[in-house]
Description:
Elements: H1 8-25, H2 32-55, E1 64-72, E2 77-83, H3 85-104, H4 113-132, H5 136-157, H6 162-195, H7 202-205, H8 212-229, H9 238-245, H10 248-273, H11 275-280, H12 282-301, H13 306-326, H14 330-361, H15 372-375, H16 377-391, H17 397-412, H18 414-440, H19 455-473, H20 476-519
Antiparallel strand pairs: 1-2
Amino acid sequence: xxxxxxxxxxxxxxxxxxxxxxxxxxxxxxxxxxxxxxxxxxxxxxxxxxxxxxxxxxxxxxxxxxxxxxxxxxxxxxxxxxxxxxxxxxxxxxxxxxxxxxxxxxxxxxxxxxxxxxxxxxxxxxxxxxxxxxxxxxxxxxxxxxxxxxxxxxxxxxxxxxxxxxxxxxxxxxxxxxxxxxxxxxxxxxxxxxxxxxxxxxxxxxxxxxxxxxxxxxxxxxxxxxxxxxxxxxxxxxxxxxxxxxxxxxxxxxxxxxxxxxxxxxxxxxxxxxxxxxxxxxxxxxxxxxxxxxxxxxxxxxxxxxxxxxxxxxxxxxxxxxxxxxxxxxxxxxxxxxxxxxxxxxxxxxxxxxxxxxxxxxxxxxxxxxxxxxxxxxxxxxxxxxxxxxxxxxxxxxxxxxxxxxxxxxxxxxxxxxxxxxxxxxxxxxxxxxxxxxxxxxxxxxxxxxxxxxxxxxxxxxxxxxxxxxxxxxxxxxxxxxxxxxxxxxxxxxxxxxxxxxxxxxxxxxxxxxxxxxxx
Length: 520
């Protein structure tokens, strides 16, 4: 299908927003019709992403299907969108997981379910905008738009401690966002001083040398904003609370989508905008990533709350993703992008299973569960599948991403590779122990057996499970499209970092000669 004349990227961004507007402003009677409309809009956007995939050239590392027009010409801001191998699968997993999250909450009871589904669509608009924006101001706008529905989903439909979780989410994310905004404006004015034009176009800002005195504070501002959203240790503490208090669809979207925006932003913005900062401080970031990898696994081991356990597991997996990014080789970045897609599927699947257990039992506490296999063998089967997928069983998707990251880590340092591999073993221990305690330990006395999965729940879990198998067996479908962009990024960062380092040394030598001449 020829989509060269379609504004397909704009359609992907704004179709969910149109659906959300219809849900918000039409006076519905009951919840069924707005929920159905939201699901149809989500399915239509998934179809658009499949069309995007089919029209994508896997051999090209350049931006494709670019859309560009003036947005705020007085400021030099443009409506600039594009897709490459790094963003293609971020868009696809977003359009895939949003309808799955909707199905997972289909039988959810509570107030104003129409608004709940409308906010899910609005969240999708913000997420896809982040992955496609090539203008820094436009990116920042979508970065903030994404947070509004997330706050509302947790704050209105969350658990008993939702206010605390929402407040913590706001403080962390807004703090990081404000730091980034200051750095964006500084970069904007530096570019004008050097090139004579005001622009937020990242392809032009990539070429803007940052003055040495501003490199550390600006790079750090971007790093903190993205590390909070990732969330990388020690900026991770908002995540367990947000997970524990989120409704099921909110937890699926936080794990599957929201925390991927930070890791993606490292690739799209931090590395190419600040290559010297990124390479100079890579050992520090890698150390934080390895700490997150180990720390998340250790805290997951001692959790009694299932949602918190999976949240800390996500912290551990994110550490592995950041490790893959900051080893600066193709294998590491390929593995990081692949892992982001896989975590969305595997951890999202685990959260849905936990939500279904909670709906029947009224608890997420492992100590109050046990023997679930006897009552719900079908659910137990899905729980086992997503558990072993998260562990990294060969033939399933997590294994591919983890293996590539391990290869990239070993190429840089044997110590990095050994530590990451050790945590993989620890991950297997706490996830399989979780499965044993919930499913196979002796069950407490129950008033009546719990009902196994409904047809809708079975379909909801089957869809991501199939994709996990397909990606594990045939990873080439992703890697062929990721690799050209990964190669380009690695080459670009290393080249620019070397040039800036050379220029800095030349300036130092020139300054030293000048000072020597003055002293003589």
